[in-house]
Design goal:
- This protein has 284 residues and is mainly beta.
- The protein has two domains: 107 residues, Immunoglobulin-like (Sandwich); 155 residues, Beta Barrel (Lipocalin), CATH 2.40.128.
- The chain is built from three helices and 18 strands.
- The radius of gyration is 24 Å and the shape is elongated.
């Protein structure tokens, strides 16, 4: 992913893991001083080794600092009110960093600082599962694998204990569960953001709808979370079985195989709670 990208990134992808705040003290306890944009004392620099890391310092103890980070499209990515902070921007792009100093008499805004991040932070995406899922900047498209497209499993599957039974694959002996047709496709990339596009094919009339937004790949907890109304690609008449198609479990991930699971809701089906597991392969 070592190519220069001047691509925007949206607010939903950064705020969850980059920025933190300290409690804001009472402004009435600050000294009665006069601060102007010209007399503000602060610095915004990029780490000498890793340009994705910003070093923020407020050098005036008589003010309360407030930092805000905005992408090239004007989306606010996060904020901090630490006097000394380090912030990571994992995607390449141009950003505006805003500094505001709060005093007893009010607030004073500095002129925004433009920061140019030339590359994605490869260390952040060093886990091989990122490449398996997305093919990095280039992107990767997944479709249902009709050798083994759908099955059922216990809620703990594939753990070594607990409710981990599985009925996978199920399609070979029960082909009626899902017609073999083009149900759409699911795309992921890391091209300046966590970009995803999902195309779904309707059951009744074969019309297709496409939704684009961002996603979060929670590697530690084996979850993919789709944002902005995007839902996981599925096939067959399963939609009403599950109330949540946007926060899904990663059951299996390799370069050539992806299994995502959703929870079948007992109150909706009357057939008990379990995982419905859909199997995908890379699009040819």
């Amino acid at each position: 992913m070592k190519r220069i990208l001047y691509i925007v990134l949206t607010a939903v992808t950064i705020s969850s893991f980059l920025f933190s705040c300290e409690p804001v003290e009472d402004r009435e306890s600050l000294p009665a001083i006069t601060v102007t944009p010209e007399t503000l004392k602060y610095s915004i620099t990029q780490d000498a080794v890793n340009k994705n890391v910003l070093i923020l310092k407020s050098e005036d103890p008589t003010v309360i600092p407030y930092w805000k980070f905005v992408d090239a499209s004007g989306n606010e990515l996060g904020h901090s009110n630490k006097s000394d902070d380090r912030v990571t921007l994992p995607f390449a792009g141009k950003y505006n960093v805003y500094f505001t100093a709060y005093t007893r008499g009010g607030s004073v805004d500095a002129v925004p600082t433009i920061v140019d991040v030339p590359e994605n932070d490869d260390t952040y995406f060093s886990d091989p599962r990122w490449e398996m899922l997305t093919n990095g900047v280039a992107g990767k498209t997944w479709v249902l694998d009709f050798v083994d497209p759908v099955g059922w499993a216990g809620l703990d599957y594939p753990s070594t204990s607990g409710d981990n039974w599985s009925w996978l694959p199920d399609y070979a002996s029960n082909s009626w569960v899902m017609p073999n047709k083009n149900w759409g496709e699911m795309y992921f990339d890391l091209n300046g953001n966590y970009n995803t596009t999902v195309t779904q094919t309707a059951i009744a009339n074969n019309n297709q709808t496409t939704k684009k937004n961002t996603y979060k790949f929670d590697i530690a907890n084996n979850r993919i979370i789709f944002n902005g109304g995007v839902e996981m690609l599925y096939g067959g008449d399963y939609y009403l079985d599950c109330s949540n198609w946007y926060n899904v479990k990663v059951v299996e991930l390799t370069a050539t195989s992806l299994r995502l699971a959703v929870i079948r809701d007992k109150s909706r089906t009357g057939e008990g709670v379990c995982l419905i597991v859909f199997h995908y392969k890379p699009k040819s």
